[in-house]
Design goal:
By secondary structure, this protein is of the alpha+beta class. The protein is built from four helices and 16 strands.
């Protein structure tokens, strides 16, 4: 059995953490196929990790194992999880990092990882990515039955994303993610403003007069509001950086107005 293992972490690439996780996997399954989704999630930013995984996971083939570790609660009483859906496996901490991806998956079972037979022989309280999640992913890739890793549980932590507020003339959301290009991703979805497509977008002290399909519809250096590839409303600057240009930050308010 051959299953892809993806990695999404906030480990960065300066240190050897990512290589160590891969080594733990390869030591158990030398033929494992590992794909890096990202290791540049901002440190401890679970929302950014969840958003990155949500954007990427559904493009992988059925049976893929998605290992995600953004884990400010490592070593605490938070659970270690294996989540099985109709298409995928998700391995990582119970802190909400899977809650966005699971919105579009058909859940089959949630396993609390407690069977130390499938962990490394010595567990560091600060590196569960290496000592628990990597070996579990490796054993899964070898075909071990998910029920071998621990008991089933009924619930996992959900990510408390901010709510979008709607009136007849206004939608108010906020910035939940800033990508590598400086584009500002809001929590307003395509479905959330289908009837408001002729509205202006206001952020900080700037007003964008209309929604665009592409960056090419505005001039170089202009602000642009558009529906991103993940169906969230985004703000950018053509050939520029909206994060720097607007001095924007996570949590900043965004409005669609008449």
């Amino acid at each position: 059995m051959k299953r892809i293992i993806t990695l999404t972490t906030d480990f960065g690439t300066k240190d050897g953490y990512v290589g160590t996780v891969k080594g733990a996997i390869f030591s158990l399954n030398p033929r494992a196929e590992i794909v890096d989704i990202s290791h540049e999630i901002p440190p401890q930013n679970i929302v950014a990790g969840a958003f990155c995984l949500f954007n990427s996971c559904s493009f992988f083939p059925k049976g893929t194992i998605h290992l995600a570790v953004v884990d400010p609660g490592v070593g605490s009483r938070r659970k270690a999880l294996l989540v099985q859906t109709q298409k995928y496996f998700f391995v990582g901490p119970d802190n909400g990092i899977f809650s966005l991806a699971l919105r579009r998956e058909k859940l089959q079972k949630i396993i609390h990882l407690i069977n130390s037979k499938y962990f490394l022989y010595q567990i560091s309280p600060t590196f569960h990515g290496r000592d628990i999640f990597a070996p579990v992913a490796a054993y899964l890739s070898l075909g071990i039955d998910p029920d071998e890793f621990g008991p089933q549980i009924k619930e996992i932590q959900n990510l408390p994303l901010p709510a979008v507020k709607k009136t007849k003339t206004n939608i108010a959301g906020q910035i939940i993610h800033i990508d590598n290009f400086g584009n500002l991703v809001s929590n307003v979805t395509a479905e959330g403003f289908a009837e408001y497509k002729n509205m202006k977008v206001r952020i900080k002290k700037s007003v964008i007069p209309r929604l665009s399909r592409t960056f090419a519809e505005v001039r170089k250096g202009d602000l642009v509001a558009y529906m991103g590839s993940s169906n969230f409303l985004e703000i950018g600057i053509r050939e520029g950086n909206a994060h720097l240009g607007l001095k924007a930050k996570l949590g900043d308010r965004l409005e669609l107005i008449l």
